[in-house]
Amino acid sequence: MKKLLFPLVVFLPVTAFAAANNVGSCGLGSKVFEGQKGVAPQVLAVTTNGTFGNQTFGITSGTLGCSQDGVVTSAWKTAMFIDGNKSQLARDAASGQGETLDALAALLKIDAQDKAAFVSLTKARHAEIFASVDSAETIATQLKAALQSDARLAKYADAV
After folding, report:
1. Of 43, 56, 75, whose CA–CA distance to 143 is shortest?
2. Residue 65 and which of 17, 30, 89, 126 are 20 to 30 A apart at CA?
């Protein structure tokens, strides 16, 4: 029972963030299952892409909904970090300092010259960003919106 429960506890929070993004975002699978929501269509889209090996072709040729200027991101790491550190992150952001806030800045790859602005933003918009400390997805969405609204920090929003 414990062997079954552990993977669920570890990976279930990630599915909430994965559901917001279409993991088969380009390739034949994305075209076949376009507009469908849920885990099954995403799994089928990725499986289709993997089976036919068309995503590589789509990226290099700029077809099948793929672009050649895409950026590979690791937003899932940020999502997992927020989910595992919601309460402490909220406390650190409220005070404008702390290890979890520093770690989040590092995950978002915030440059040293922008870190003070990031800390200031999270402190100033704390009530908005952490309106629901129980929902990591809401925190991530609000943080991304806050970053996007700041001209200096907008370049970091895609990492959330």
Report:
1. 75
2. 17
Read off the pLDDT of residues 103-133 as tens digits, 9 standing for 90 and up.
Answer: 999 999 999 999 999 999 999 999 999 998 7
**What CA–CA distance (Å, rounded) separates 160 from 151?**
16
- Tell me the pLDDT tens digit for each residue of 29-82: 777 877 777 777 777 777 777 777 777 777 777 777 776 666 545 567 888 889
Closest CA to 145 of 127, 157, 133: 157
State the Cα–Cα distance between residues 103 and 39, nearest whole angstrom. Answer: 30
Q: Which two tokens stand for residue 18?
A: 């994965």
Tokens (6 digits) for 134: 């129980």
How far apart are the C-alpha atoms of 43 and 96, rounded to whole Å? 40
The residues, ordered by sequence, that sit 6+ positions from 43 with a Cβ below 8 Å of its Cβ are none
The tokens describing 90, both together, are 């909220």
Among the listed residues 144, 137, 155, the one whose alpha carbon sits nearest the alpha carbon of residue 122: 144
Whole-structure pTM value: 0.57
Q: Which amino acid is at 160?
A: V
